[in-house]
Amino acid sequence: MAETHSLQDLRQAAVASKVFVQRDYTSGTICKFQTKFPAELESRIDKQQFEETIQTLNNLYADAEKLGGRSYLEGCLACLTAYTIFLCMETHYEKVLKKIAKYIQEQNEKIYAPLGLLLTDPIERGLRVVEITIFEDRSIGSR
Amino acid sequence: MSAVMITRKVTRKWEKLPGKNTFCCDGRVMMARQKGVFYLTLFLIIGTCSLFFAFECPYLAVHLSPAIPVFAVLLFVFVMAMLLRTSFSDPGVLPRALPEEANFIEMEIEAANGNVLAGQRPPPRIKNVQINNQIVKLKYCYTCKIFRPPRASHCSICDNCVDRFDHHCPWVGNCVGKRNYRYFYLFTLSLSLLTIYIFAFDIVHVVLRSVDSGFVNTIKETPGTYPFIRVLVCFFTLWSVVGLTGFHTYLISLNQTTNEDIKGSWSGKNRVQNPYSHKNIIENCCEVLCGPTYPSVLDRRGVMLEDSTSPNPSDASTHKSSNPVSQTTVRQHFL
User: Strand B134-141 and strand B126-131: pairing?
Assistant: First the structure.
């Protein structure tokens, strides 16, 4: 498939540089990333596309950390069972993390890899940054 | 698939983590290095409760109600569960920056500071962020090479930056941070209840026996001086644990950490206010105690990718090797 070929090629391509999208703490300690478009990506990707990706990620994290009926119910139920319920049940946050991992893989395959970029899941960097690897734009053209 | 089976010991990421933590059960358990006081805590709780179950409970079950020891057992189990959960889980350690990220941040700092004249001290590495109309300073951690998120602090005992750092508790042998604060609070709360319970029923037991056979005889009958040692232990534990529970209840209602309280971050001078508080006691309590369970970002049980020496490096296997890690990374975040 063209997409997998693209991702495969990236593994052998040379890394030109990396950009780190930092956390946005203006709304408090919730997990949110800055949507400011890094200058290094200007020649590679559309600003709109980048902002959409980051905004979707922010929305997913907001959903994971949302304080509401669901999280309170989960918390109370877990407390009543001395938190042993988590041995058999997945927490809401974990479910959203899986969704995020899938979304990032999808974005990499469809949009970023063909442009010679690779997004790293923030969880692998301690939820501190979204690492974007910029590959050298030599053999990665449109296949 | 390769025909040659290579039995190689898998290296998991916890083996290479910096910081002064000890890991057990192949990375499932994470604690501080000094565990002596933790063993003392275990000894005091298990010792006192065993004596209570052995000597008081049979008498109380018969003369008062069998529900008394049953409730004591449930409370004891809850206390132990919360203690072990607090001690063994990741408090919210922030992993150190990888070299590329550290360099990127260094470059940003240099760009922000401009030219520093030779002989002059470079300005402190601080970022200002506005949270809820309050300026919060983010400090740079020279050990972890990151700007610490708000409310995070570097624990010198464990040599890690911990998110929403409360304090390092030697009694539980671990830091108390974002991920295990609620277990720590429930531990102190349930331990207070257990101590009060045992204390009360020790007294009831002595009183009942005295009513039956006189006070002096009671002292002679009850095995040794166990109840009195226990009453003494309970008395001192009571004041410290109940006091601690009260203090943390106060902190939770204001959505503050012990660290912030000690430093006086939101003490009100210069009109600074806590930007994280919902200004509503119930909401603050709900957020701290019933909020979402945060995942561990350390990935202690993830497998370290070996990038050399494998005999059949086919493209398919190297491509697959990264995906299972990302699948397993999510599930490892539980403890």
Answer: antiparallel
- How far from B29 is each of A10, B23, B200, B294, B334, CA to CA, in Å? 37, 5, 35, 17, 11
Domains of chain B, by residue range, sit at 12-94+157-300
Say which residue the tokens 């939770």 belong to: B252
Verify whether residue B169 is a known catalytic residue.
yes
User: Model confidence over B23-60: pLDDT tens digits?
Assistant: 988 888 999 999 999 999 999 999 989 988 988 888 88
**pLDDT per position as a tens digit, B293-333:** 898 988 888 888 765 443 443 433 333 334 434 444 444 45
ipTM, two decimals, is 0.86
- Rounded Cα distance between B121 and A73, Å, is 53
Asked whether B303 and B10 are in contact (CB, 8 A), the reply is yes
Domain spans in chain A, listed from the N-terminal domain onward: 15-34+46-135
Q: Helix A47-64 vs helix A92-107: angle between axes, to the nearest 10 degrees? A: 170
Give the mutation candidate from A20, A21, A132 for the B interface (greatest B CB count, under 10 A).
A20
| B140 secondary structure, DSSP code | E
Distance CA A79, CA A72 (A): 10
Residue A95 forms contact with B (CB below 8 Å): no
Give the three-class secondary structure for A21. strand
A residues 30..89 contacting B (CB < 8 A): 64-67, 71-72, 74-76, 78-79, 82-84, 86
CA-CA distances (angstroms) from residue B264 to B66, B107, B176, B248? 49, 33, 19, 16
